[in-house]
User: What shape does this take?
Amino acid sequence: MKQSLYKDKHVLIVGLAKSGMSAARLLHRLGAHVIVNNGSSSEGSTEEKELKQLGIPLHSGGHPLSLLEEKIDIIVKNPGIRYDLPLFEKAGELNIPIITEMEIAGRLCEGTMIAITGSNGKTTTSSLLHALLVEGGKKSYLAGNIGTVACEVSEQVKQDEFMVTEVSSFQLKGSPAFQPNIGIILNIFDAHLDYHGSKEDYVASKGKMFANMTEEEYALYNADDPEVTALAKQSNARLFPFSTTEILSEGACIKDGWMMFQNEPVMEMSKASLPGRHNHENMLAAAAAAMLSGVDRQAVENVLTTFSGIKHRLQYVGDVNGIRVYNDSKATNILSTQKAIEAFSDPVVLIAGGLDRGNEFDSLEAAFAGLKAVVAYGETKYKLADTAEKAGLNIVKIVDTLEEATAAAAAVAEAGDVLLLSPACASWDQFKTFEQRGDLFIQEMNKQKKQ
Assistant: This one.
């Protein structure tokens, strides 16, 4: 039984949060001897009370090396905690394995594990695939970054059921043996280099999933991305490419306006509910994984023609006086914003701005050249405005807050235009999360509608 894998193991969990608590509960239930460590003080917290009731020791307020003086077989770390933590460096010297809860999920899942990773599009593709499996009559669980913590879900999945999991590079870096039945890599570009230290480490972390797979599993890869293709070619899995630019006799692609699967037509792409080439990539990947799992063509068309998108990810907010409004607050990097702009053929009034991480926005100049206007706000407002002016735009507005930006954009936009929030920056200069930023944008647009 897979559930006996951790019985009597001595496990140190570092980092509480959602994943740490889920791992602690699960491993305790499976018979492991669990100790929990949290960097900040957890005194008086609900987590401390729950752990005390379970009889799990909690050490909080730092990461003392003395924790390693006890017998420790495995460390399960919160994915967001960096590996240069002295506690982890000492554990490495002692040859103590350091994993994330995704590794546990992969080992415990009895059903078909489908894992999706990539720099962009993970959440949309995961949600699409889950919806496709359900429409196709399959029992599917959605887990990982998008849903319930993966290790918490994996225990429930039976042999004839599916687990769709969104997986980050942080999780994969700490999952040395993670081996899904179907693995999907959507794309790779520079991201999270502050965490990984180099692009090489970032790419290697993403590629670890394909590297572990065998000829019994499917590796679905974006044939339009050279780095993804290189990772796929190193895998022993059965390779299954998808492409929006090439016609493939084997794989998934777009041919004469039709989605094709193994050279057979599935649906007309003009009927697809989500705009943009990047969403077409997501659809191809999700549809291919679903059809390899036994979902029929009609179920695929039913979902892909009605799927409304994920909140804050190129989400259609509505029509305001003939202006189509989209909330893409999740676009926290340059490539996401570039792809969002490319999704539209009508004139676009763009709102962008947010946390200044020290980078420039020159790579957006070509995308900006086709815009009607840019309204820049937040810490990066001057950098973005400078890029817009270099792109030759006549209408460039600079404001301080998102509320002001929304009003300024609404004043510029006309019937037939697209008003798009796609910040190209993290939200932390003015908001705690990108969700909070997107919610405020929707709220402000609703005010504009009433006016």
